[in-house]
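Please fill in the sequence for the structure shown.

STRUCTURE ENCODING:
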């Protein structure tokens, strides 16, 4: 088709003009096309000269050398608008057309990674890749499958770099990253670049730090697609190739999860959703097990938004379930803390608080489990609660103890609940008032 690049550039320009008016609905990193925009998709599909392969090649040409069009439009990114159109186009073409055009799509994806597109454009590249995987997860040729894996690795790495853009290095050590002390902006993907530019001036007036405005969006998108995407792209005998990529992603995720400040809340929520989704796949365990356990043991663990609790329950359940050592490690820590005696050089309040912290985590672990999951450990749990429980418990230990007893009862079968009733050692050990609370 003659002047195909100019035709597609004009489509991208009109696409921007037909975008939806902002709504108060929940934000989306990749915007949903409006009815008027979808008419443009049908228009291109109806042009006989614009076969699927031709569209892909022309879109790649526009991305590499955008025609000089509408430069007076302050907020127009022709590349982003072109990719928004292409994302909607890929969603609506038949699977057979998409599969037959794989070489052209692969070339487009490879070039896009190297072009240094704006962050919203890179989000759309991941969206296009995800749509292809959803429609055709397995390629017949091993060479094609390996190329799909390689381009997936590069695209995810690029999004991971954006996700880490709100972190800064505090020392020369590479792994010592912390969250920048700057606001984290959340805007809808429909007009992502324009909204970010409009908000920048306000933010800069209130902060001496340049805000990394796309990091939350990158984390949110990874939380939505990464776990399933990698599981589909890499076959069961190739899962080991995923671990280095996930380790790199966790390098950016963990610093956000260590920071419980209010301004980091959007990133914390996105990261906990990402970790929760990854934890559901056992082969990913090596990439996050140690970090998740360390976060669980951190004294600020429970300082979180209530919406994060369900995700942490899933993570802790997977953490404790998929091997035989992690829960035993937790039980050992609780037992050691309960049996350790105060000495002349220890701080009594600090030691009691440490015991309380471990009781809380044991209670949360049981709360996150299935019924009877820890049935065989009930004698050990009872021993932690009775045999080595200090009679002179301080008030914060008391509340944690009640929580542990309550969740142990709820997660046990009726015959095991007798441990907490009648004249059991546990109830006798408690004061009458506390006994009523626990029963």
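FILLED IN BY: designer on duty
SEQUENCE:
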């Amino acid at each position: 088709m003659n002047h195909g690049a100019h035709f597609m550039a004009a489509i991208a320009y009109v696409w921007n003009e037909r975008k939806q008016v902002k709504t108060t609905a929940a934000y989306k990193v990749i915007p949903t096309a409006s009815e008027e925009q979808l008419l443009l998709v049908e228009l291109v599909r109806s042009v006989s000269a614009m076969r699927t392969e031709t569209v892909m090649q022309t879109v790649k040409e526009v991305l590499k050398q955008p025609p000089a069009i509408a430069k007076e439009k302050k907020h127009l990114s022709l590349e982003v608008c072109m990719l928004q159109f292409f994302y909607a186009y890929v969603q609506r073409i038949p699977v057979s057309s998409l599969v037959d055009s794989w070489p052209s799509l692969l070339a487009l994806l490879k070039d896009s990674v190297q072009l240094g597109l704006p962050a919203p454009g890179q989000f759309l590249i991941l969206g296009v890749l995800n749509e292809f995987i959803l429609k055709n997860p397995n390629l017949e040729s091993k060479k094609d499958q390996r190329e799909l894996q390689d381009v997936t690795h590069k695209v995810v790495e690029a999004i991971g770099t954006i996700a880490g853009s709100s972190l800064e290095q505090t020392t020369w050590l590479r792994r010592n990253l912390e969250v920048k002390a700057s606001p984290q902006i959340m805007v809808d993907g429909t007009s992502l670049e324009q909204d970010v530019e409009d908000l920048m001036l306000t933010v800069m007036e209130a902060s001496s730090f340049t805000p990394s405005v796309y990091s939350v969006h990158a984390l949110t998108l990874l939380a939505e697609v990464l776990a399933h995407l990698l599981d589909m792209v890499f076959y069961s005998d190739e899962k080991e190739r995923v671990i280095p990529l996930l380790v790199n992603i966790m390098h950016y995720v963990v610093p956000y999860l260590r920071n419980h400040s209010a301004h980091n809340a959007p990133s914390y929520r996105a990261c906990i959703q990402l970790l929760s989704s990854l934890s559901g796949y056992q082969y990913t365990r090596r990439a996050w097990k140690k970090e998740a356990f360390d976060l669980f043991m951190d004294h600020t663990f429970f300082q979180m938004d209530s919406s994060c609790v369900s995700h942490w329950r899933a993570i802790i359940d997977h953490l404790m379930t998929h091997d035989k050592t992690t829960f035993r490690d937790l039980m050992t820590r609780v037992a050691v803390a309960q049996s350790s005696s105060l000495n002349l050089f220890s701080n009594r309040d600090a030691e009691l608080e440490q015991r309380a912290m471990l009781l809380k985590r044991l209670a949360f672990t049981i709360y996150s489990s299935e019924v009877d999951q820890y049935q065989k450990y009930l004698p050990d749990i009872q021993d932690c609660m009775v045999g080595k429980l200090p009679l002179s418990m301080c008030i914060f230990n008391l509340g944690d103890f009640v929580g542990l007893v309550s969740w142990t009862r709820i997660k046990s079968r009726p015959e095991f609940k007798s441990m907490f009733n009648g004249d059991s050692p546990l109830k006798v050990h408690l004061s009458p008032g506390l006994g009523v609370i626990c029963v």
